[in-house]
Sequence to fold (252 residues):
Amino acid sequence: MRAAGRPVDAVQLDIAERLANRAIEPQVVISTVMSRSMGASVLGDVKQPKKIELSPAGERIIDVISQAGGLSVPDEEATVTLQRRGRRVTVAYRTLSDHPQENIYVQPGDTIFVDRNRRTFLAFGLTGESGRFDFEDSDLSLGEALAKAGGLIDDKAEPQSVLLYRVTDRDLLRDIGVDVSRFGTRDVPVIFRANLRDPAAFFAVQQFPMQDKDVLYVSTADAVELVKFLTILNSVTASTRDIASSHDAWRD
Fold:
């Protein structure tokens, strides 16, 4: 008797009918050990990428990721893409863990991709090491970022000119009273300066959180090195007008 591709209840009925002449009111129960139609694939940055067999009770996205061995990347940097019937939706893994209503049930035939969205910052100037650095930890302060970059070069760096460049939403700046009328775009370049000659600044930099794609620069002299810093950023971001406006705001 062929069972492949047939519903379980139809196979049970067929078997019961065939046993009718051999048993009184035969009862047939069929249990499915594995069904291709009930599987979902989990791929990407998980420890054991594989196809997961879904139970009748149902599994949610985080459940099947756990069955695939869990994340192989920091959860703060993980994004999850659900592919279902030709559609794709991507959310941060933290969204699923922090908001249970977003952690929806997986359906047969779904494919779940886990990708790493690396959080990094750049360090230039008179730090022990220049380059791109991963956050690695869930949270990273400005002080910790300076340490990752090798600290300040003692005999050359100007401790009062530790500069941090960040692109910030104009609405956020407006809410805290910053005049953003000179900027025509939604994203506004902002420069923060830490004066490490002030002992209080050592406490402040441990409380100041870094954000993804921040740029850290340690200069030798305020005016000259700031111009150099803005010139570097101009070549990287190609937003001459915005950076020039930042320069004017700094001088003001």
Remarks:
- The first strand starts at residue 39 and ends at 44.
- The two ends are 87 Å apart (CA to CA).
- The mean pLDDT is 82.
- The longest helix spans residues 222-237.
